[in-house]
């Protein structure tokens, strides 16, 4: 179980910090759900999860889909919340 959680965390940190250029974040925040970079970001997460769980994809695929949908929903919520609040992106990141 610990290895499973470690895989999820590594995939998440890689997708959010290593493979997401600042340009993507700025454009995503400017263009909201119309931004192609939001979908690139979600695609990177999907690819990383497929890569990390490729050995047992049959068992984990439904969970991967759920994680991707949840990640997309959280990112969209952060985009809209950042436009309606005075909280910094970092504080929103920590909250959501």
Write the layout of secondary structure elements.
Elements: H1 2-18, H2 22-31, H3 36-52, H4 57-84, H5 89-95
Helix pairs in contact: 1-3, 2-3, 3-4
How would you characterize this protein structure?
82% of the residues lie in helices and 0% in strands. The chain is mostly helical and 96 residues long. The mean pLDDT is 91.
Radius of gyration over all CA atoms, rounded: 14 Å
Largest sheet: none
Helical amount: over 70%
Q: Give the termini separation.
A: 24 Å
**Percentage of residues in strands:** under 5%
Order of helices and strands: HHHHH
What coarse outline follows from CA principal-axis ratios?
Answer: elongated
Low-confidence spans:
none
Mean pLDDT: 91
Question: Main attributes?
Answer:
single chain, 96 residues, mainly alpha, elongated
Question: What would a concise description of this structure say?
Answer:
The protein is mainly α. Helix content is 82%, strand content 0%. The protein is elongated.
């Amino acid at each position: 179980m610990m290895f499973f959680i470690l895989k999820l965390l590594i995939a998440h940190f890689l997708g959010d910090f290593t493979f997401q250029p600042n340009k993507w974040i700025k454009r995503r925040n400017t263009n909201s759900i119309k931004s192609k970079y939001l979908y690139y970001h979600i695609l990177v997460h999907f690819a990383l999860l497929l890569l990390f769980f490729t050995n047992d994809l049959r068992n984990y695929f439904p969970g991967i889909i759920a994680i991707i949908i949840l990640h997309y929903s959280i990112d969209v919520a952060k985009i809209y919340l950042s436009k309606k609040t005075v909280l910094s992106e970092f504080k929103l990141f920590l909250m959501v």
